[in-house]
Every structure is written in structure tokens, then in C-alpha cells.
Design a protein that fits this description.
363 residues, eight-stranded parallel barrel, alpha/beta, four-stranded antiparallel sheet
């Protein structure tokens, strides 16, 4: 397992030097805002960032995301142009050492929370979701509320161009159901996977966040059945999953350890995002501290499943709370994510040493 830390390049107030000081972190999962969805990632710009990572002893072998343009998801005639751009981006980042690309195929909203600064009893704040709030707002009102809460920071996956045309885009999705969206997804994968195989990149799709439909928009990456369908769209080692425990875990029936064991054992997990959430009701939760007792997910069983199945890929703590007076991009402060790294590394070390001492399948 390689422990990494998400970093936003030149747009990140957290320096690479600070990231390198977190014990056990060997690299970054990079998210660069310089490139819009559909645009080719410039090799020289990206290489300069990779070189900066290397200066601090950090690898940059996994990135998130080369965002998929909405025209590809909707299956519009313009998609072929954007797919060609995507393939060139893959070639460019592969030349800079990238081995895994995390992406998503979520229509319109790459993720959605109803509160970016939900205050917890201890005074920290965190990301939260309440379906009741979604049902009480229009899509435009919801977008405006979230963007206003983001301050001066861009939100990952929320492209300004797409959101400026929100009503138009939503109208286009009225004729796209799950089957049609999955058909468009298959078209995309069939086009790019040969390039991935050629340059040695694994695509790792991120699940829906939260893991159910919103505003009558189709969602196809929410359940174990959805994941199996994705793997079967194109049978290739380059077609893999990014298992995000907070996103999949938002749907209570998803058995995270079982999902992890199934797809790691088949070498179809390209990356892991590991975080805890706390349920407060039906389709209502907040993102808790990583410690198991702080939330509703068993983080020990998650890390044990990874170890038992032989996971050797890239993992990072996911969203963290804002603690100790820190301000910054919602979910992506330094302090709580660094605590998450330490906790997850501690669980991993304990599980691995128990296997050495008591056997491969410790109980």
C-alpha cells in the first residue's frame, strides 16, 4: 500500500514541504485546476509540477482528475473531439510518470453536499449532506448555496462553464436514463482503454457521491451491482475502480469490506479514498473524523479487507474536518487529513503485523 495525500498544485495553500513532513506519506494524488474539462493537459506544465513533487521526495504517480467533459457523458456529436483530447492528456501524463488516473462519470454534479461547514459539538466543522435540504431547493439554488459557502476556492469537479449552463444541461438529461448513460460510458471506455494499455495507465472510476440519484439525474456508480457492470463494460486491467468508502458508504446496504475484497482480489482497484461518515438519519450524514468510533464505518475492517486481499495500490485519507482554527478549501485542510494518515497507517501496521504473527487470515 502506498499512502498518498491529495494536493491541488499551485492552487493549494498547503505546501508540498508540509505534505512531505507527514509520516508515511510517499506521494501525492494531484488535482490541477489549470486544465478545464475537455482540455488537453499540457505536458510541460504538468511536468514542472511533478518535478516540484520530486524535489520534496514525493511521488506523483496518480492524479485526480482529468475530468470527463459533459458532452461525453451525454453522448453528443462533439464527444469524439473531447475523447481525442482525453487520450492525448493520458499520453502526456504517462510520459511524466503517472500510472493511475482517478475520474468519474457523474452527470452534472461530480459530488454534492448540502453544508460545507457543518459544525460539530467539539467546534470543528465538516462536510454534511441532508436529502431533505435537496428536496427543498431547486438545482440552481442548491448550486448557488454551495458555491457561496466555498469562499475563494474552486470546488473540485464543479466546472464553471457547465454550471453556468445548468438549466440547459439538466434539460438535456431528461432523455438520458441509466441505460443510455451506461451506453455513453461504454463508448468512452472503448475509445480510451487501448490508449491506457499502450501507455501503462489504469483508469479508476470514483463512485457517486452521495450514492443515489439527485434531481432525477441518472447515477450508475452507486452499488456493488453498478461496479460489476462497469468492470464488464470493457474487460481490461486498465478499467479499474477507485473505492471511496465515504461515497459508497453513504448507501448503508453497501458492504464495504466485501466490495474491497472482491475487486482487490481481481486486481480491479486502482485507488482507495478512505474516510468515515456518521449517519444522523435516512440519507443524512456528515463526514466524521477517521477514527471508527467517531462515525458509522468500521475503519479497522476496511483496512483489514485491503490487507487480506493484498492491496498494493495508492490510498489516501479523504476529506477531513477543519480543526484547530484552520481555514481553507472545504474538506481539504492539512491537520485533520494528516491525523487521518497517521490513524490509517497505524491500522495498516497493526493488521500487517497480526498477519505475520498469527497467519494470513486473522480474526
Amino acid at each position: 500500500m502506498k499512502m498518498t495525500f491529495r494536493h491541488y498544485g499551485n492552487d493549494d495553500p498547503i505546501s508540498l514541504q508540509y505534505v512531505a513532513q507527514i509520516p508515511g506519506v510517499t506521494g501525492v494524488m494531484a488535482m490541477l485546476n489549470e486544465f478545464e474539462a475537455g482540455e488537453v493537459w499540457d505536458k510541460d506544465i504538468f511536468k514542472a509540477y511533478v518535478d516540484e513533487c520530486h524535489k520534496y521526495g514525493l511521488e506523483c504517480e496518480i492524479i485526480e482528475s482529468i475530468n470527463v467533459h459533459e458532452d461525453i457523458k451525454m453522448g453528443l456529436p462533439t464527444r469524439d473531439e473531447y475523447i481525442e483530447n482525453y487520450k492525448q492528456s493520458l499520453r502526456n501524463v504517462a510520459e511524466c510518470g503517472v500510472k493511475v488516473v482517478i475520474y468519474n462519470f457523474m452527470p452534472v454534479f461530480d459530488w454534492l453536499k448540502t453544508d460545507l461547514a457543518y459544525e460539530l459539538p467539539d467546534g470543528s466543522n465538516t462536510l454534511a449532506f441532508d436529502q431533505a435540504k435537496v428536496e427543498g431547493l431547486s438545482p440552481r439554488d442548491m448550486v448557488d448555496e454551495i458555491l457561496n459557502g466555498a469562499g475563494n476556492f474552486e470546488l473540485p469537479g464543479w466546472e464553471p462553464e457547465r454550471l453556468a449552463r445548468l438549466e440547459e444541461v439538466l434539460d438535456q438529461y431528461k432523455d438520458i436514463d441509466e441505460d443510455k448513460l451506461r451506453e455513453n460510458y461504454k463508448y468512452f471506455l472503448e475509445a480510451i482503454i487501448p490508449t491506457c494499455e499502450e501507455v501503462g495507465i489504469k483508469m479508476a472510476v470514483h463512485p457517486d457521491d452521495p450514492a443515489w440519484p439527485l434531481f432525477d439525474i441518472p447515477r450508475i456508480t452507486s452499488t456493488a451491482d453498478d461496479l460489476e457492470k462497469i468492470i464488464n463494460l470493457v474487460d481490461s486491467p486498465s478499467n479499474t475502480l477507485c473505492i471511496c468508502t465515504g461515497s459508497l458508504g453513504s448507501r448503508k446496504e453497501n458492504d464495504l469490506p466485501a466490495i474491497i475484497r472482491e475487486y482487490v482480489s481481481r486486481d480491479r482497484v486502482g485507488a482507495m479514498h478512505v474516510r468515515n461518515i456518521k449517519f444522523e438519519g435516512e440519507k443524512k450524514f456528515y463526514e466524521a473524523a477517521h477514527l471508527s468510533t467517531c462515525g458509522s464505518l468500521d475503519m479497522y475492517e476496511i483496512m483489514k479487507a485491503l490487507s487480506d486481499a493484498g492491496f498494493t495500490g495508492y490510498l489516501r485519507p479523504d476529506h477531513g474536518r477543519m480543526i484547530w482554527g484552520e481555514e481553507g478549501r472545504a474538506g481539504y485542510g492539512l491537520y485533520d487529513r494528516a491525523l487521518g494518515v497517521t490513524y490509517l497507517n497505524g491500522l495498516w501496521e497493526a493488521v500487517e503485523k497480526d498477519k505475520e504473527r498469527y497467519g494470513a487470515e486473522t480474526k
